Amino acid sequence: MTESSSVNRRHFVQGTAALSAATLASGAFARAAAPNRVSKLRYGVIGCGGRGTGAAVNALEASPDVEIVALADVVADRLAGAKQGLAELEGDLSKRVQVDAKNCFVGFEAYQELCSLDLDVVILATAPGFRPIHLAAAIAAGKHAFMEKPAGVDPTGVRSVLDSAAKARAKKLSIVAGTQRRHEQCYREAMARVKDGAIGEITHANCYWNQGGLWVKPREQGWSDTEWQVRNWLYFAWLSGDHICEQHVHNLDVCNWAIGSHPLRATGMGGRQVRVAPEYGNIFDHFAIDYEYANGVRVSSYCRQIDGCASRVEEIIHGTEGVLYTASNRAEIVGKQPWKFTGEQPNPYVQEHADLIAAIQNGTPVDEATAVAESTLTAVMGRMSAYTGKELTWEQALASKLDLVPARCTMGPLAIEPVAVPGKTPFV
Fold first, then answer.
1. 183 close to 351: Cβ distance less than 8 angstroms
2. According to the model, what pLDDT value does residue 22 have?
3. Would you list the DSSP string of 315-363?
4. pLDDT value at residue 55
5. Exposure pattern of 44-81 as b/e (b: 16+ CB <10 Å)?
6. Burial of 293 by CB count in 10 Å (0-12 exposed, 13-18 middle, 19+ buried)?
7. Which residue from 294, 264, 298, 267 is spatially nearest to 427, judged by alpha carbons?
8. Fewer CB within 10 Å: N-end or C-end of the chain?
9. pLDDT, tens digit, 9 for 90 and up, residues 185-209
10. Does residue 423 form part of some domain?
11. CATH number of the domain that 205 lies in?
């Protein structure tokens, strides 16, 4: 972690690949063990916070063939904490953590050093603003990738991820995303029934991620502006994309999955009503978005992070012959063909890694990057509409020049962009 640590994002942003609903990933991958299993899969982790460390543990749990051999993070203490936590895992798991000091990298260029190693798979679990850069580097280095959601924080990042997805397909590399609902058995069975017509033609949907507030890390002496923002990445749009993008993307992804396409346009509203103190950066605390899809299908999207309010995290898909209700560990259809999921429910955070490993070992590459990029742009389009007060089309959002991530990141001064004001903040 030095003042000279930097990363040039725009060097990796290439092309303006178009999105296609036909390339939406279904999330239904083979689970059978391959006849010719490789002896070991060498994993590196970029982003050693709670999610990165958790993903590393999930990968170890998913297969005895996984070894964690390299770690990278912007700050040294997070890397040290992850290394210690992984070494203290119980039983066989800790034996498959073989991280030498020479394979630990700190700073904004750490991802490049990690990707230069002899690895099979890279876990990408940093703040979302860095996701497009890191995916581009992993694919360029010939690595398979597990990338956390969302795919980025702005249209520039989404286009970069689409470009990386195309390159991965050409190289027969697999990318699985952290949209774990696509690997959750109750969701998979529910979506199979929707595709078979169990609720008829979809007419509209509602989706929610309403909850209380999250953590804040008070600024410590010696932290630069950049370090403070990175450690509190949730609250800065350039790092998280706001909570509609970082969190609510799960629900929007389910709606896109059920409908089978992305929205055509969005009209949104939102604001910063309660979390107004400086430690909450420049994001909103609530959003409400009206999305219009083909054939007049509409999705009403709501997300909120305010203490003392009603909580709700679910999706409701309405059809001409029934209604599907989905949430974590729950799926139910009410209507002409009633159904309720009662089967076994493997841990979806482990299953997503098992599906990636199966794809690698079976030689059947999968591309979840395109689907999560579409869902990310769905969220970004809603946020941009709410920030500006404008109705936006998919084409406008995809072509937008908005680029929130600094061209060069250093551990130094970094001004905070002002909070958006609908009707005054321009569409870029």
1. yes
2. 30
3. EEEEESSEEEEEETTEEEEEESS-EE--S----HHHHHHHHHHHHHHHT
4. 98
5. bbbbbbebbbbbbbbbbbbbebbbbbbbbbbbeebbeb
6. buried
7. 267
8. C
9. 999 999 999 999 999 999 999 999 9
10. no
11. 3.30.360.10
- 3-state class (DSSP) for residue 94: helix
Mean pLDDT, rounded, for 396-415 = 95
**Are residues 381 and 293 in contact, defined by beta-carbon separation less than 8 angstroms?**
no
Q: Same structural domain for residues 206 and 330?
A: yes
Which residues, including other chains, have CB under 8 Å from residue 207's CB and lie 6 or more apart?
248, 251, 252, 254, 255, 299, 300, 301, 302, 314, 315, 316
The DSSP call for residue 274 is S
Task: Give the whole-angstrom CA distance, residue 176 versus residue 355.
Answer: 8
Whether residue 178 is found in the same domain as residue 190: no
Does a structural domain hold residue 1? no
The conformation of residue 420, written as its DSSP 8-state character, comes to P
Could you read off the pLDDT of 312-325 as tens digits, one per residue? Answer: 999 999 999 999 99
pLDDT range class, residue 105, cuts 50, 70, 90: very high
pLDDT of 5 reads 34
In a domain, 383, yes or no: yes
What one-letter code names the amino acid at 205? Answer: A
Between CA 293 and CA 121 the distance in angstroms is 36
**Residue reference for tokens 């500006």:** 388
**Same structural domain for residues 173 and 197?**
no
Number of domains in the chain: 2
Query: Taking a C-beta distance cutoff of 8 angstroms, is the pair 123, 44 a contact?
Result: yes
Assess whether 173 and 296 both reside in one domain: no
CA distances (Å), 28 to each of 18, 295, 356, 371, 416, in order? 24, 26, 11, 13, 41
Phi then psi dihedrals of residue 224, to 5 deg: -75, 170
Cα atoms in the 13 Å half-sphere on the side-chain side of 189: 15
Segments forming the whole domain that contains residue 58 = 10-182+349-367
CA–chain centroid gap for 406, Å, is 20
pLDDT, tens digit (0-9, with 9 covering 90-100), for 60-104: 999 999 999 999 999 999 999 999 999 999 999 999 999 999 999
Residues 268 and 203 grouped into a single domain: yes
Q: Let me know if 418 is exposed, middle or buried by CB neighbors in 10 A (0-12, 13-18, 19+).
A: exposed
In-domain check, residue 424: no
CA of residue 257 relative to chain centroid, distance: 15
